[in-house]
Amino acid sequence: MRTLAELERIASACVLCPLAETRSRVVFGTGNPKAELMLVGEAPGRREDATGIPFVGQAGMLLDRTLEKVGLRREEIYIANVLKCRPPGNRDPLKEEIDICRPFLDEQIAIIAPRVLAPMGNHAANLFSSKRLSITKAHGTMFSYKGIAVIPIYHPAAILYNRTLEPALVDDFQEIVRFLRSGARAAREADQLSLF
Ligand code: URA
Questions:
Q1: Which is deepest, 58, 80, 102, 126, by most CB within 10 Å?
Q2: Ligand 1, from 25, 55, 62: best to mutate by most atoms within 8 Å of Cβ?
């Protein structure tokens, strides 16, 4: 298996889709390569594109505040996005872009092997489910993906638009922390089907 550093070197030179022409930096992901919790956002925004680091803009500040509230530090988790390059004007990722970029995320997940994956928002959550999920219903629930517990949560940017969602994001993070502290692993796929 490749190391994260090797994978990052390859991703940083990626020209597999047209986003390579408009990006400033590839935003590969940051954090603890041995993290038990991996957060998956949607795609870099303007500040992320400029710095090469995920979640450093307004949504990132809200994420940092939320992490602090539940006693998590960025250094102990890993944060990546579905797309490694910024879509122009922060438009939604296209299906083709997601399909092309996904192997990078899959390999990151395989290398890091987290106990919990927390996809943020609809685009990320739907990568891990064979059923079409709406984050409004699916946030805070749990299902299993390749033996990893998946707990979808609201995207921090959604909270910036609708502050009434903030307590749900904090609650869901608390649930994630409880699961991590319990030492549990994802239940078998078959047990999870009944959740939906
Ligand atoms: N939104 C995301 O989904 N990812 C980032 O890195 C920043 C904002």
A1: 80
A2: 55
Ligand 1 pocket residue status of 48, Cβ below 6 Å: yes
Report how far residue 181's alpha carbon sits from residue 195's, in angstroms, rounded to the nearest whole number: 22
124 CA closest ligand 1 atom index = 3
Summarize pLDDT for 100-127 with one digit per residue, the tens. 999 999 999 999 999 999 999 999 999 9
For ligand 1, mutation pick of 19, 23, 42, 120 (most atoms within 8 Å of CB): 42
pLDDT digits (tens, 9 = 90+) for 44-59: 999 999 999 999 999 9
| The CATH number, out of the four listed (3.40.470.10, 3.40.50.10490, 3.60.130.10, 3.90.180.10), of the domain defined by the range 4-194 | 3.40.470.10
Give the pLDDT confidence score for residue 188 in this predicted structure. Answer: 56
Q: Where do the domains of the chain lie?
A: 4-194
Say if ligand 1 is within 6 A of residue 28 CB. Answer: no
pLDDT for 7 equals 98
Does this model's pTM top 0.70? My answer is: yes
